[in-house]
Design brief:
The complex is a heterodimer of chains A (117) and B (113). Chain A contains no helices and eleven strands. Chain A has 117 residues and is an all-beta fold. In chain A, the strands form two sheets. In chain A, strands 2, 4, 5, 6, 9, 10 and 11 form a seven-stranded mixed β-sheet that branches. In chain A, strands 1-3-8-7 form a four-stranded antiparallel β-sheet, with no helix packed on it. Classes of the chains: A mainly beta (117), B mainly beta (113).
Chain lengths: 117, 113
């Protein structure tokens, strides 16, 4: 069974704090993703990584950075947390896509509900 | 935006009834996937259908794909209270970057016992 774990289920931080969200997968997947989920907006891609030290911006990268130093671990960093970053953060991983088959099944962690005060 | 759109946004049915959710998208896909999310949890993959397939079954789930109409439907037969969840379609598009999926906003299904 694929397992994706996230460092915290719930997190409360103050405005201006630096926040680290960590995600670990145990299936040797090449791709890892960070999404945020807000009511009425669905899942929005923040960043993804297709290999160690490789990253690409998603739809809403502003205010976030990421780090992938090891294949199994993908970190999301909020450099200076703001109240509009209060959200549910979801990490996912998948095998590498191919041109013919397209995006592979994504396996999600349980999510981190972040509250920024 | 390439984002898929699910319809309806919310659906409430009685246990034992069938539930049908629809998904529309805008540009050509190489596959379409359906996911389920229980309240406050991560998403769980249900089924993947490729662009050259028209129908796929998995247990009580039946997915259809009509690429000419750029739409898909998810049918859950003989629903149970445990099927209460949000359901999302996700599309993989040709030319998409490294295997990204584009998720819709979801259909919230409530199955009353």
């Amino acid at each position: 069974d694929v397992k994706v774990t996230q460092s915290s289920r719930y997190l409360v931080k103050r405005t201006g704090e630096k926040v680290f969200l960590e995600c670990v997968q145990d299936m040797d997947h090449e791709n890892m993703f960070w999404y945020r989920q807000d009511p009425g907006l669905g899942l929005r891609l923040i960043y993804f990584s297709y290999d160690v030290k490789m990253k690409e911006k998603g739809d809403i990268p502003e205010g976030y950075s990421v780090s992938r130093e090891k294949k199994e671990r993908f970190s999301l960093i909020l450099e200076s947390a703001s109240t509009n970053q209060t959200s549910m953060y979801l990490c996912a991983s998948s095998l590498r896509a191919t041109w013919t088959s397209g995006g592979k099944t994504q396996y999600f962690g349980p999510g981190t509900r972040l509250l920024v005060l | 935006s390439q984002q898929g759109e699910e319809d309806p946004q919310a659906l409430s049915i009685q246990e034992g009834e069938n539930a049908t959710m629809n998904c529309s998208y805008k540009t050509s896909i190489n596959n379409l996937q359906w996911y389920r999310q229980n309240s406050g949890r991560g998403l769980v993959h249900l089924i993947l259908i490729r662009s050259n397939e028209r129908e796929k079954h998995s247990g009580r789930l039946r997915v259809t794909l009509d690429t000419s109409k750029k739409s898909s439907s998810l049918l859950i037969t003989a629903s149970r209270a445990a099927d209460t969840a949000s359901y999302f379609c996700a599309t993989s598009h040709y030319g998409g970057s490294q295997g990204n999926l584009i998720f819709g906003k979801g259909t919230k299904l409530s199955v009353k016992p």
